[in-house]
Structures
1.
Amino acid sequence: MKNLSDRVVARLQAEMQLPDLSGTRYNLVRFVASGGMGSVWLAEDTVLKRRVALKVLDLAAPGGDLDVRLFREARILASLEHPGIAPVHDAGTLADGRAFCCMKYVEGQTLAEHIATLDLRDRLRVLERIAEPLDFAHARGFIHRDLKPDNVMIGAFGEVLVMDWGLAKVGLTSPAGEETEIATAVQPTHNGLGVTGQGSVLGTRGYMSPEQARGDVEIDRRTDIFSLGAILTFMLTGSAPADLPAAFGSVPRPLRAICEKAMALDPNARYRSAREMTADITHYLNGEPVSAYPEGLVERSGRVFARHRTAVVLVAVYLIMRVLFILFARR
Amino acid sequence: MTRHSVVVAAQSNDPATRSWAIGVIAAAYWRPVYKYVRMKWNIAPEDAADFTQEFFTRLLEKEFLDSYDSARGRLRTFLRTCADRLFMNQTRDSKRLKRGVGSAHLCLDFMEAEQEVAAELLSGSPEDSFDKEWVRSIFVLGLARLQASCASGGKLIHFELFERYDLEEADPKPSYAQLATEFGLSTTDVTNYLAFARREFRRCVLDQLREMTSSEEEFRREAQVLLGMKVT
């Protein structure tokens, strides 16, 4: 067999990367991104005439753990119908044996790109919207386990989507101890093991809770609360949470306290739910006290003044006028 | 044999099994080793050729491979390190690069490899060259598998189409319609045959790689490099 030139090798490599879509309803448009276990491609659904995202594993391994994980992700997405979660349309195996799943193609920006132009209040509102699908998933018994800025997309119309549920897991030990029917329906059955491997460490350092980093099996939704706190920290400081505490700089103390409570090393010291955490954010935005931050008298006075500035000024003017009136009346 | 046949067989005590396995490893690695030592140590072509022969002879004698532990690293990295170690030992001992009498001699086309080295000496590192040659060698071995598979399955025309369209340097490439006329097929057949050949080529290349890796984890990581999805 003759040797191959560099050009031919490069061409063959490029061809081998392409998913084999023969026999499917999809036409390949272009490469989008690659991840740890596969690549995402933009494709056209020739039946419905719309663009979709195809997540395709790099290698064929029928029945292997990556296949099982991809199909589990597809089933989880199928069971989580929420405007903040990109819907899945299809899943299966290509002619070349590689597993794929077809999802809504989200055109937009990553969280980091989006918040660069936002002021503090708008950033906090984005965080509230990240927490909504998360709270929704938690209520159905799922934990995401890989929340980070890269996994949050902002769509063309400002919609906030939590992406990449590939590491999602059924949270069997939520604080309330509940386990929902939906979560039970996508329980892993592969050899009776969780597909992410019991006791194995999966996630992203810096955004992963300490218990997840230790490989604890008994993790619950509070691991996502930690990650949500890490995302809030990133949104407030522009730095990865690993750089704390110096990076907080001029961040208001109540917001810093919210980050610290969400990222407490002890899961019991964290917010019990994403909703509880966003309630504190909403309180802050409304100029109300936040549960994570016990404020002193001066700070409380300052906050009340800031919140009711007009009323306070009017009362102060009234009192001054009243005092002056009394003084002049005595003369 | 298990999926790790070549690496396991190369550590076997049975001379015939070991010889077969080293032959397979040599087929995939002789070019990377030859070009690597030519580039890294800047030695003469004939010395690099002798060194390459010596290297695989030592492998056959189990001198290196006995210490290979797949849990500690990839075979590719291990062999490159062994080449460095052998070269430095030989330099230190100031020995000529001679093969022992009666030792195995592999039939390797150093002339062709040398022509390629001339162009590569000016660009890239020896390590990059080693990895690039490794990819090329696995592809060449995968092609041989594809050809054999097509021949035995009565689908040699699929391979010939693949060779004509994907392996030739022609610029511009022939159109599917031109190939259809040339091979006496319909354009749809050309499309389907090429799709088949490409799918089979991918499978053959990955099968070849699977044989030459020691674990599923190593296979996955090497496959991503081989397919150009990840850098080394």
2.
Amino acid sequence: MFRVLRSNSNEAAEIVRDALVRGVFSENPLLVCATGLCPALAISTTLPRGFTLGAAMTVALACSNALISMLRAWIPASVRIPCHLVVIAAVVTVVDILLRSSLPGMSDSLGIYIPLIAVNCVVLERGNVFASRNTVFHSVVDGCVVGIGFCLPLCLIAGVREIVGSGSLAGIALLPAYPGIEIVVIAPGGFLALGFAIGIVNFVKAHRRHRA
Amino acid sequence: MNITELFELSLAAALANNIVLSRFLGICPTLGVAKKLPGATGMGLAVTLIMSVAAIITWSLNVLVLVPAGLTYFRLLVFVLVIAALVQAAEIAVLYFSPRLYRSLGVYLPMITTNCAILGLTLVNADANPVTGAPFTSVEAFVNGLASGAGFLLVLVLMAGIREKLETADVPKALAGTPITLISAGLMAMAFLAFAGMGASW
Amino acid sequence: MSREPVTTTPSAPSQPTAQAAELLHMSVGPHLRHSDTVAGTMLSVAAALVPALVASVAFFGIKSAVLVAASVASCVLTEWLILWLLIKRPRAIADCSAVATGLLLAFTLPPGLPVWMAVLASVFAVGVVKMPFGGLGGNFLNPAMAGRVFLMVCYPAALHAFVSPASGSMCGLPPETLDLLAGKIDGVAGATPLAAFNMITTALSSPEMLDEQNFHIMDFQDALVPMFLGRTGGCIGETSALALIVGAAFLWYRRVIGFKIPATYLTTMLVLSWLFNGTGSLVTTEAFIVPVYHILGGGVLLGALFMATDPVTSPVTPFGKILFGTGCGVLTFLFRKVGGHVEGVAYAIVLMNLTVPLINRFTCPRAYGTRRRRAKGVLA
């Protein structure tokens, strides 16, 4: 891994750029592939919560991808998935402990959704499909960009839901006289917001394809 | 352990805190599998079965082993392994005892390993009982699992019906597929808010 | 699609072929048309709602007309904008379904509601419940009821801020009875009839207590006539039972709604509220007053006659309709008795709407000559 970094820095930059485009735009896990939706719907009620979960997911993805990639030579193919589950669960436990010690209030508010990263389809899929077949550097980059690709739409949707639902952003009231549309910040609003978000993305893609 | 409290807990688990529409767990099968009624019923029954058994086993491990030994940090790891092993064992058991049942349910069992719903429910059982405020007892944990599974089955079945109706609707292209299913789930969640006030007055 | 048959003429006419051509008319089917159109049906519904509208303006004043106008206008505008900009079928607005949605939604709102809330509910009803599914016929929830549920979730307090009618009292009881009760129970004078009934029967919860306080369920009998005519507090469309029944009779005559769903819905409500009437017996006169009270109070008549019968979101098969009506009745009664809501109709209808595709599937009449389908279709 260090050899790659030292001698092929240009190639590394290209890898990172390609991965960024892929992870954030063309194969965005949340908006394009529509996987790993469970936390996205539950957490995107306020911007701080959304960002915290997105950051935790990115860290967990990067670390678990790195570990799986490092161990890929030693994991037999028949027990691959349980081994990956163990690795990911261990990583998520560590992330959970770190979060609980550094941001206890936020950790309480996120509840069971941080531990649930362990069975998130995105994390498992990247580990299974990518990290078990590629070098550590590639896997870490992939984990980071997929995490960013997850975090960005999550923050966007959370921000919109918070503004439309309560007229404030990250707790700061933006529109003082705004009565707030309660339904957006509770359960139905999550489904509706994500549904319309994916619909808008599809609409923009079709429009661009039509124009091109 | 009151029968009324158990009844209240099961209604809350199935309807008011519905595992899909209120806790947002198990969205992936709802979007993927609930296209046709047979698939939805099969998945729902399989999940209910696994959820109830997993609830008891993980509760026992948590209360009898992890908490007294102070090893709650390993809870996630242990639960994930237990659920994976349980699903594998269930698949083998179903195949051995009833090949016919395996043909209808068995194909969904491997999908359940990564289902957030099961792990989510076992983690919920590790918290406090929303009805009594005290930690869950073993019977309450089992009832919680069974009722949550029943609620999951209900949502899958309703969603399958709605998806069949959507096939003949003129959905705009941008919304076809996942978006309209999510919007339907959102409207279903809004309808299920009817039960949110019911727990208070039993 | 023109209604005139199109005559073809051959390119090189010779005498006998030209004559033959004039006898040959070609047109695209359907060849026999009924005079009903979608717009006609929707406008019949609107016409059926006019008596209730007139009654509500008479009782509550011009503000109810303002609310109705705002609701209809915002429904039509939202649907037209979405059809024009996003779906690119602007002429579909002419089917007038948005007008019917706006009217029905407004009828479930209290007269004093702020206009912007009605506008928001209309935008939700049309823009989220109806149009993403492709417009008329694609939705699975009744848009008007879903709009009302939206408001119940977001602004529940505003929906309970009822105003007194211009004539008659808020809860329909005559002044002497109100004075008798006002000393014992707070808030009775400002509550709608159903809320007052619930308040009193829970506060004075046993027949002995009722006797002790010199109050009898029979006294509620005096509220029934104002409730039937509409001189009580409530939502715009639901107070005047007489106007609603007249409108529904007109729709039944025009064959827009059937009788199965309203009949089963109301019968189920009557039977359930008689069985669980809370007066301690089943054969006294009070026991028979209570069910009538439940039917006339709250939006049950509006829901049973106009909302549950929406052809898009109710079952198609005859037995399915009976199931649907019964289910609505059971759920409404359950939500009223046990749930935290005074008014259970909206949630009940919306929940039953969810089950309609399944009801349609399982009540399909058996085709002649085939065997009855067993559970194979469920677990195959």
